[in-house]
Amino acid sequence: MRSILYSRWDATQQAFSLDPKQALAALSELLLEGLSARSALAWMRQFGFELAGLNLRVMGVEELQEELKREAQALHQRYRMDSATEELRRRLDEILDREQAALREQHGFESSRMNDFLSRRHAESQDLSDAIERFGDHRFEDEQAGEDYRELREELERLRALERFLKREGSRFRGTQPADYPTAQRIRERLEAIERLARDFAEGNFEAISPERLRDLLSEQAASSLLILRDLEPTLRRAGFLSDRADGGELTPRAIRRIGAQALAEVYGALHKDRPGGHEIDARGAAKLRPDQTRPFEFGDPFDLDIPRTLLNALRRRSAAGGVPAGPLLRVEDFERFELDFETHATTVLLLDMSWSMSWAGRFPAAKRVALALDHLIRTRFPRDHFFVVGFSTRARTVAIPDLPELSWDPSDPFTNLQEGLMLAERLIAKHPSASPQVLVITDGQPTAYFDRGRLRVEWPIGFGGVSPHAVAETMKQVRRITRRGVTINTFMLDDAPELVGFVEHMTQVNRGRAFYASPGQLGSFVMVDYLEGRRKRRA
Fold first, then answer.
1. Which residue in 20, 105, 285, 477 is deepest, having the highest Cβ count within 10 Å?
2. HEC states along 195-243?
3. HEC readout, 126-166
4. Domain containing 195: what range?
5. What would the mean pLDDT of 368-380 be, rounded to a whole number?
6. Are residues 486 and 369 both part of a single domain?
7. Exposed (0-12), middle (13-18) or buried (19+): which is 243, by Cβ within 10 Å?
8. 353 CB-near residues (< 8 Å, 6+ apart)
9. Does residue 5 surpass a pLDDT of 60?
10. What does the alpha-carbon distance between residue 170 and residue 165 come to, in Å, rounded to a whole number?
11. Does residue 517 lie within any of the structural domains?
């Protein structure tokens, strides 16, 4: 007969294994905030994170230490320790009283044995352990008293540990519940275990921590969190998401692709929920047949006939006429034509504002998520397209796609050099020409930095809510130059300040591109719609 034995999960069994994809998803949220992989892992260990797939909050070191601290405080506030050793002192006094009576009966009160015993008993001592140890070599006349003493002496080391503990911690116990000796020992062991755990957490020594002990002290969640924190980095390495560098590693290309796919899924998820609408374009690329969709031919349509459907239409018409009527086999009304997609080979440059103000209100993570999503979309669906990212603050520079996940804003740089960003975009488009070049600008501020005759200049806005006139003028010159190349500029504003709106409206009038105002939560939807609509349009 087969039997099954069930036992309580003690957090040392692997009730579940950490999913590396979920771990990478949690890591990527911090990468989008601008942390490096190494810093993000350190942050996750210190402050915890969410595992959405398991609906689990992983407690970080700081939270676990706070839980340990609260557990210690609860013990301090509940108990008082002023009578912790009274029980053992009474036991010693009873033993010594019986021995003193036996010595008086056997040797008299004035004997040397009695004098030695009394000198030991009444010697001054601060600790009970010293009073017990003084009789270690005494030969007891009362055999039962001697047996009881030996049992008491076996407790000597634990008693010393309690005495040291009370000297160190005794004044912190201010509760109302008196702790007897066994309770005091349990409290000592518990608090010393808490102290060791807190020290191991502070040192990152997760391997030395017992999940079972942590569960006993705190909770199942704490034990589960320990296992996840311990396995976090090894799990990411085994999955090929982190390199094997000893300093914490770097994201691998596989991880970057995965983060891009995740960002794209989030952007498309917002797109389906928001549905901001279509944005029409005039330019069309080469036609591509859609074998899954057809419609009746109309005068003026391309002669892209679906031959089987056309012949089937003719046969149905002739059958409905009751035979084989005179006239041509095929008529115009029999023609069935394929729908067409018009696709455009595109070069796209995403200009990403990296000035300090982009760190506010979740703007930079939203912008970086869009960059990752666009890169993944283009590599997987439009591999012939060219896609580049240019970051700009006081200076502009091209950002390598592998560096995107760990890219951060410039924390000490408040200026915005859109002019140089457009210059770099123009060079990239000239190097990779296409019939549909476009620039996508994501920014939260008007230009405040520019080049004048090769010299970099910065310019604060004039007055509250004012503009930087020279920076705006030089940037508009570059807008006109890139417009003459046939480049479309679409701008996504993350702030609705009047000075920014006014500048973008001026730029849009010159370039004939479009401008959108989007909160960080809407940004992905708008940019994805714009890219897809700017690339392809089906002809009715």
1. 20
2. HHHHHHHHHCCHHHCCHHHHHHHCCHHHHHHHHHHHHHHHHHHHCCCEC
3. CCHHHHHHCCCCCCCCCHHHHHHHHHHHCCHHHHHHHHHHH
4. 20-78+189-238
5. 83
6. yes
7. middle
8. 367, 391, 392, 393, 416, 418, 441, 442, 443, 444, 445, 494
9. no
10. 7
11. yes
Bridge partners, 274 (sequence order): none
CA angle, 221 as apex, 216 and 227 as ends, to 5°? 90
Domain count, the chain: 4
Q: Answer yes or no: do 391 and 458 share one domain.
A: yes
Shared-domain flag, residues 392 and 429: yes
Q: What was the pLDDT predicted at 7?
A: 41
Based on the domain organization, do 150 and 195 belong to the same domain? no
Instruction: Report the b/e string of 186-212 with b at 16+ CB within 10 A.
Output: ebbeebebbeebbebbeeeebeebbbe
* pLDDT score at 431: 93
Mean pLDDT computed over 91-103: 93
pLDDT per residue as tens digits for the range 245-270: 655 567 888 888 887 777 666 665 55
The answer for residues whose C-beta is within 8 angstroms of residue 62's C-beta and 6 or more apart is 46, 47, 48
Containing H/E element for 478?
helix 469-484
At residue 475's C-alpha, the angle toward residues 474 and 476, to 5°, is 90
User: What is the rounded CA–CA span in Å between residue 83 and residue 401?
Assistant: 68
Q: Are residues 361 and 449 in the same domain?
A: yes
What confidence category does residue 79 fall into, taking pLDDT thresholds of 50, 70 and 90?
A: very high
Three-class secondary structure of residue 27 per DSSP = helix
Compute the half-sphere exposure of residue 100: CA atoms within 13 Å on the CB side of its CA. Answer: 13
Average pLDDT over residues 120-128: 87
Domain-located, residue 266: no
- Phi then psi for residue 304, to 5 deg, are -100, 80
Indicate if 421 and 440 belong to the same structural domain: yes
Each residue's pLDDT tens digit, 172-219? 999 999 999 999 999 999 999 889 988 888 888 888 888 888 888 888
Question: What token pair was written down for 105?
Answer: 């009966």
Predicted confidence band of residue 375 (pLDDT cuts 50, 70, 90): confident
DSSP letter for 251, please. B
DSSP code string of 267-279? HHHHHHHH-----
Residues 401, 524 within the same domain: yes
Residue 385, helix vs strand vs coil: coil
Of 363, 315, 317, residue with least CA distance to 518: 363
> What gap in Å lies between CA 437 and CA 430, rounded to an integer?
9
Measure the CA–CA gap between 173 and 78, rounded to whole angstroms.
8
Cα–Cα distance for residue pair 43/28, rounded to 1 Å: 12
